[in-house]
Design brief:
Layout: E1 14-20, H1 24-33, E2 44-53, E3 59-64, E4 67-77, E5 80-90, E6 93-94, H2 95-106, E7 117-118, H3 120-129, E8 133-147, E9 150-159, E10 162-171, H4 174-183, H5 194-202
Antiparallel strand pairs: 1-5, 1-10, 2-3, 2-8, 3-4, 4-5, 6-7, 8-9, 9-10
Length: 212
């Protein structure tokens, strides 16, 4: 089995992730159980825009550093979700990409596109004009770990300024994730992906987060 490396792409990984107000005890256990990780993943911060669609829970679209990244849901096995890259693009983004890949991924009505390419600002304006779409600001402060050869993190996340905490474990090997969930005291905690968490925070889904 090839060893996973943080920050590197591998075959599609399975993931457990949850969101709530505090995972203090689980974070403590994760940090204690972790093997040493590269310094570059000790702590990372980023600002991202997630494009949330009321019509769709299977495509995860985010923009970071002027680049758009869409992942698509593949399957759930033993309660763990698997996602695959669907598209990567940069701004300005071509009309053809918006027509064939981006708006179909949102599963909403196509806006009138009369230009050959669109800047980030123009794209966000189209998103805001669509009643079924929302552009949500997400700031992440992430602390990286490696437990049972699974890539783990605990993060402080601001969703349009509302602070929540996320904790996760991901790997190509399902049994390694399940062991990590047990070892870190996360058994019975709801698996919530970023799309679900953001929709709950902004009120698009009427559900609380994991430990609220």
């Amino acid at each position: 089995m090839a060893e996973l490396k943080i920050g590197e792409q591998s075959k599609p990984r399975f993931e457990f992730r949850s969101f709530g107000q505090c995972f203090c005890e689980q974070h403590k256990r994760m940090a204690r159980l972790s093997v040493p990780v590269p310094e570059k993943v000790w702590e990372r911060e980023s600002d991202e825009i997630y494009i949330i669609s009321a019509k769709n829970d299977i495509n995860n679209t985010k923009i970071r550093n002027g680049k758009m990244d869409i992942k698509t849901y593949v399957q759930t096995v033993d309660g763990l979700e698997q996602w695959n890259p669907l598209m990567k693009g940069e701004f300005p983004i071509a009309k053809e990409v918006l027509e064939k890949e981006v708006f179909p991924a949102f599963m909403v009505e196509m806006p009138a596109l009369d230009k050959d390419s669109y800047t980030y600002e123009e794209f966000i304006a189209m998103v805001k004009a669509c009643p079924d779409l929302a552009a949500v600001r997400v700031h992440k402060q992430r602390f990286g770990y490696m437990v049972n050869n699974t890539i783990c993190e605990v993060g402080n996340v601001l969703i349009n300024g509302a602070k929540v905490v996320t904790i996760n474990s991901e790997s190509t090997e399902i049994e390694d994730i399940k062991k990590t969930i047990a070892d870190c005291g996360l058994e019975g905690v709801e698996n919530i992906n970023y799309l679900q968490a953001i929709k709950r925070v902004i009120g698009m889904i009427d559900k609380p987060l994991a430990n609220e």
